[in-house]
Amino acid sequence: MKLTLEIWRQAGPNAEGNFETVQVDDADSQMSILELLDHVNAGYVEANKEPFAFASDCREGICGTCGLMVNGRPHGPGQHTPACQQRLNLFADGDTVKLEPLRSGAFPVIKDMVVDRSALDRVMQQGGYISVHAGTAPDADTLHTNYEANELALDHAACIGCGACVAACPNGAAHLFTGAKLVHLSLTPLGTEERGKRARQMVDELETNFGHCSLYGECADVCPAGIPLTAVSAVTRERARAAFRGKDD
User: Which residue range is the domain that position 48 belongs to?
Assistant: First the structure.
């Protein structure tokens, strides 16, 4: 399988970047996009050239580290699939594939396709936790939940924090990410104690680092975890609930 790759090269955060063209004549259609980059880098190392920098970790679709842009779309053409699981059979022999970092003002480029996504971490630091009383753990049957609430919480807990939603949004909003965390934690018994405080602090941090929601739904379309667009409404709903109930909740 032959592919023409245009890969983003940028030496550092303050350096100018450009696309570097690489011709690959022996790609396997079952390779993932990251395996393709591995293949290119192996050739570069053998030729004493500097390999391309990109981020990855588990390569199983659960860590969110592999976020990058493929032909202008976060992760690639396959819907609800992270870059590490996107296969080259999604492309035709002879195609040109453009690989670049996630594009957002909130994600400054560190090098090549590696970006700083700590803005998402700062949102989580403001409320992505629960408070529990120290001591003997309670019996499992003392915390009553229902099946529907548990399933809904798990659906939103599936967010892997990759940042694709931010890169897809023309305003650089992170409402799908933040809303997913707010919904998840509001539905769990141990997450209700600081529900109001969480909403206030996480939404304030969200608005400090990211843009306003565009209301078009690009975020849900590219989300590899399939987080529903309804999660966006939780940002306004949980913040309004916290304002109504006051600082004690």
Answer: 3-111
At residue 248, the pLDDT reads 54
143 in the same domain as 38: no
CA angle, 160 then 203 then 197, to 5°: 100
Q: How many structural domains are present in the chain?
A: 2
Over residues 5-50, the pLDDT tens digits come to 999 999 999 999 999 999 999 999 999 999 999 999 999 999 999 9
- Residue ranges, the chain, pLDDT below 50: none
What are residue 19's DSSP bridge partners? 8
- The Cα 19–Cα 168 span in angstroms is 20
Q: Which residues pair with 24 in a beta bridge?
A: 3
Query: Within this chain, do residues 53 and 138 fall inside the same structural domain, yes or no?
Result: no
Q: Any idea what the CATH number is for the domain that residue 129 is in?
A: 1.10.1060.10
CA dist., res. 120 & res. 163, Å (int): 8
**Helical (H) or strand (E) element with 23:** strand 18-24
Q: Produce one character per residue of 184-212: b if its CB has 16 or more CB atoms within 10 Å, e if not.
A: bbbbbeebeebbbbbbbbbbebbbebbbe
SS3 3: strand
